[in-house]
Input
Amino acid sequence: MLQELRLTPLAVSALAGVFVCASAHAVILNPGLNGPVATGAAPPDWFEWQKTPDTCDASGPFNNTPNPWALSPDGGTFVRAGGSDFANAEAIGQDVTGFTGGTSYQIDAYITNLGHEHPTSGDWLGQDGYWELYVNGSLASTSVTLSKPAANTDSIVWSSQSFTFVAPSSDFEIAFVSRSSAGLLAAYMGIDGLHLSEIPTPGSAIGLAAFAVAGAARRRRRA
Ligand SMILES: *[C@@H]1O[C@H](CO)[C@@H](O)[C@H](O)[C@H]1NC(C)=O
Output
């Protein structure tokens, strides 16, 4: 007997992804934020958009806790940035190309709140914090707020977050800015594993294709 082709929502979105990749050239370079571990340095293809974010692995820089930091599911290095009020917040940026102006995109990322153990006093510092996505200097999307770990021995928890924006033109600048819920009192945030996708709009070729495939799968299941 022939195996029935089962199309789960995941398969449908994967299929939509194929259409997106075939029709667009929008690129974010080094989406894994991988590079040499360094204090005050963005990973290759990124720049320090503001202040001095760090490129970290499990041991730091600035991991003064007794335990290695858990890495995100993306692995490799990640970016750590001290969030504050906007003017003092650390941030990474990249000039991106190949987008379609007026089209909506989504960047999925892993984000975390690392907290910060003071190197000499051992005080457990840091605030609740979040990430903001800026597009050509304007705020486009804000993550959920993540609580600082309750204790310095708690393991680091990464969560998945979607940032959405409308491309203002084909080429523009994106920036991920770490922010604190307590203004000038810093939050120490991590980000890793970016994944760019175009958001299919109803009526677009992509949206219709995904819709047709989903409909066909529904009809097959009923038959
Ligand atoms: C965004 O900035 C880029 C330069 O980084 C510029 O070429 C583009 O025209 C800008 N787009 C808008 C809509 O301001």
User: Anything to note?
Assistant: The domain at 26-199 is CATH 2.60.120.260 (Jelly Rolls). The two ends are 15 Å apart (CA to CA).
